[in-house]
């Protein structure tokens, strides 16, 4: 897909797309020199509405944004064009933005438009329509429009990578595949990438991580990516849960297992965010860790009631093998903090059904010991349409994870506070780091959307982390 800014002779044959704010239809038509009167009862620019007409041989599509649209509204509104109305487009399209649209609006629109080309029909005999060579002409009065278009393209590319990593099946996205993905990223952006197999992980004492992968024929991978910028003043560490498929282990899942290819939504967000940070060249030092495993069952699978070790030196009583994500995150967090000492640490994980029970599919559950991070992540999420809401880390919940036989247990086994007790478990492996945040994204990383007939990846976390990083630089 090629973006061309403010062409001298804009296309008069391709579809012309004009986003409009509510109750500004006539003003925007006048601004665009379109001699057309549209009754407000027919189209007023309300959110999620559209109106099309032909004028001088050109098809014009008006997209209603509402009065004060947020980032996600604009993104989704433009995503619908290619996702749902690609039959209207052949070789070129004109995106004609009114003067009232600011940089954030235009960025969201361009990101959304490019996301519209994404389809999950990877293995269909009849392939989805290919928009890779589509010519997109852009008209905007904004300064630095070229830089804005380039930035939007990079954001969309990162989100599409996150989509793919979650949506592709577990025979294609394995721990080894994630390791190869990271190596390729390192080659493209000259990043320092380490991908450890089980033998190397054992030498590094990543015992909890290795226990989870014991039952799988697919060897785990512990992935470390280092992005460094010479002008950076802050160092952030990310950890993403990378369970490429989760059977539940010997505590096998009894329903919904076919959705468990999505249990690496945290890893997808971390990997795609790392790509985006490198692609944009942010003035930030970033260390990203993805413990990638498959939680399967065979004669070597770890057992309920086992006591296993961990990188932090704490012994863990395994109560439930389906509480595996927190085990690999424990080693990821401990290794990151002990070896890299970042200023801030953020982990993302599709961790608990309890987070969905609390917030549904509306937002992530946020846990942090730092008020500044809490405010920053919430504010960034509100701005970008990837919301989170805080839950407490009170020590009384931590006592629920006390074990009689070991230092800590991985599951409290009670029908309450599941997301909170999981967060308290993770906190035990952060070596009392003063600026740590945990995002339980179980309800928002893989969801029903209007863009597919089945649950698909949402790329939750990519836009959120970008907006947060830029707010602290």
TrEMBL record:
Pfam families registered for this protein in UniProt: Peptidase_M17
Sequence ranges assigned to domain Cytosol aminopeptidase in this UniProt record: 164-465
Any GO CC annotation of this UniProt entry: cytoplasm
Keyword annotations of the record: Aminopeptidase, Hydrolase, Manganese, Protease
InterPro entries: Leucine_aapep/pepB (IPR011356), Macro_dom-like (IPR043472), Peptidase_M17_C (IPR000819)
Glycosyltransferase recorded as keyword: no
Biological process annotations from GO: proteolysis
Classification via CDD domains: Peptidase_M17
Protein family (similarity comment): Belongs to the peptidase M17 family.
UniProt protein name: Leucyl aminopeptidase
Organism: Algoriphagus aquaeductus
């Amino acid at each position: 897909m090629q973006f061309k800014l403010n062409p001298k002779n804009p296309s008069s044959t391709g579809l012309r797309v004009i986003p409009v704010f509510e109750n500004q239809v006539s003003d925007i038509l006048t601004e665009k020199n379109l001699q057309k009167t549209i009754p407000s009862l027919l189209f007023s620019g309300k959110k999620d509405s559209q109106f099309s007409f032909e004028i001088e041989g050109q098809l014009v599509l008006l997209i209603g944004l509402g009065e004060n649209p947020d980032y996600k509204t604009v993104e989704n509104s433009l995503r619908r064009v290619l996702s749902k109305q690609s039959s209207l487009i052949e070789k070129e399209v004109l995106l004609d933005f009114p003067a009232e649209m600011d940089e954030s609006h235009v960025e969201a629109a361009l990101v959304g438009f490019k996301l519209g080309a994404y389809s999950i029909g990877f293995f269909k005999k009849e392939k989805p329509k290919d928009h890779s060579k589509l010519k997109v002409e852009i008209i905007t009065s904004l300064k630095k429009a070229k830089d804005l278009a380039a930035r939007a393209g990079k954001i969309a590319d990162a989100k599409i990578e996150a989509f793919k990593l979650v949506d592709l099946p577990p025979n294609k996205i394995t721990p080894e595949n994630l390791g190869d993905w990271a190596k390729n990223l390192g080659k493209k952006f000259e990043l320092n990438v380490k991908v450890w197999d089980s033998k190397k992980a054992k030498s590094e004492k990543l015992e909890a991580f290795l226990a989870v992968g014991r039952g799988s024929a697919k060897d785990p991978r512990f992935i470390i990516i280092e992005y460094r910028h010479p002008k950076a003043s802050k160092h952030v560490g990310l950890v993403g849960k990378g369970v490429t498929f989760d059977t539940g282990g010997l505590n096998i899942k009894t329903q919904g297992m076919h959705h468990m290819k999505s249990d690496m939504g945290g890893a997808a967000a971390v990997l795609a965010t790392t790509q985006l940070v490198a692609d944009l060249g942010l003035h930030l030092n970033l260390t990203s860790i993805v413990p990638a495993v498959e939680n399967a069952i065979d004669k070597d699978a770890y057992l309920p009631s086992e006591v296993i070790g961990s990188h932090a030196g704490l012994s863990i009583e395994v109560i439930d093998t389906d509480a595996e994500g927190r085990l690999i995150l424990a080693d990821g967090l401990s290794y990151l903090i002990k070896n890299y000492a970042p200023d801030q640490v953020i982990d993302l994980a599709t961790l608990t059904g309890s987070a969905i029970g609390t917030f549904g599919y509306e937002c992530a559950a946020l846990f942090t010991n730092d008020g500044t991070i809490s405010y920053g992540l919430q504010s960034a999420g509100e701005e970008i349409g990837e919301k989170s809401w805080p839950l407490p880390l009170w020590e009384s919940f931590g006592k629920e994870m006390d074990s009689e036989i070991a230092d800590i247990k991985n599951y409290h086994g009670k029908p309450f506070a599941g997301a909170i007790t999981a967060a308290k478990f993770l906190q035990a492996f952060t070596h009392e780091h003063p600026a740590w945040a945990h995002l339980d994204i179980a309800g928002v990383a893989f969801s029903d959307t209007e863009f597919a007939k089945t649950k698909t990846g949402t790329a939750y976390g990519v836009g959120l982390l970008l907006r947060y990083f830029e707010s602290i630089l």
